[in-house]
Design brief:
The complex is a heterodimer of chains A (about 120) and B (about 110). Chain A is an all-beta fold. Chain A is built from no helices and 12 strands. Chain B is about 0% helix and about 55% strand. Classes of the chains: A mainly beta (about 120), B mainly beta (about 110).
């Protein structure tokens, strides 16, 4: 069974500052993928970033980076230079990626980020 | 423009009245899936489809049906909706490993 834990229900950050959103996971799979999604107040789900368990480099997408620490089973999202438009719910998720396995992602409960001007 | 289109966006219905939420994608993706989102629970997968005529149960399939007769469409069917199926529903497709494209969501209320 997989489990995703996001321990921060809410986070506040000043505009232009960097912020780290925490995500820890638990899985018995050797091959898995980790993702982050953003959900603004309008409700849509926006894919941000993906990290494979065998990827040696941390994933980056523009201002988003995923701080992947496999031994600690953590996959924190780092947002650099926060903008007001970054205010949203953020969800961490994971899925096994072994061939032949079922593809059922597990999502965390989310972290609400508010960016102050 | 790459799109996943869900309809309707909002629906209020009564217990037991069959309904269908449609999902259509224009990206020729083989994989499609359905999620429900409930407060404090994140997203939970209902069903997914790896290709036409291939569907599999997700975490919470009870009370739902799906069909995948053609690649672009993946409707979600509630044969006899109940109040505990009141939720926000998302259809998604993926390219590569991650669900990268989500529909706008369908807010369903069953009274």
């Amino acid at each position: 069974a997989q489990k995703i834990t996001q321990t921060q229900p809410g986070m506040f950050v000043q505009e232009k500052e960097a912020v780290t959103l925490d995500c820890t996971y638990d899985t018995s799979d050797q091959s898995y993928g980790l993702f982050w999604y953003k959900q603004p107040s309008s409700g849509e789900m926006i894919f941000l970033i993906y990290q494979g368990s065998y990827d040696e480099q941390n994933a980056t997408e523009g201002r988003y980076s995923l701080n992947f620490q496999k031994a600690r089973k953590s996959a924190n999202l780092v947002i650099s230079a926060s903008q007001l438009g970054d205010s949203a719910m953020y969800f961490c998720a994971m899925t096994p990626t072994s061939s032949g396995g079922s593809y059922i992602p597990t999502f965390g409960r989310g972290t609400s980020l508010i960016v102050h001007p | 423009e790459a799109q996943v289109t869900q309809n309707p966006r909002y629906l209020i219905t009564v217990t037991g009245k069959k309904l269908t939420v449609t999902c259509s994608q224009n990206m020729n993706h083989e994989y499609m899936s359905w999620y429900r989102q409930d407060p404090g629970l994140g997203l939970r997968q209902i069903y997914y489809s790896m290709n036409v005529e291939v569907t599999d149960k997700g975490d919470v399939p009870e009370g739902y049906k799906v069909s995948r007769k053609e690649k672009r469409n993946f409707p979600l069917i509630l044969e006899s909706p109940s109040p505990n199926q009141t939720s926000l529903y998302f259809c998604a497709t993926k390219t590569g490993m991650a669900e990268a494209f989500f529909g706008q969501g369908t807010r369903l209320t069953v009274v």
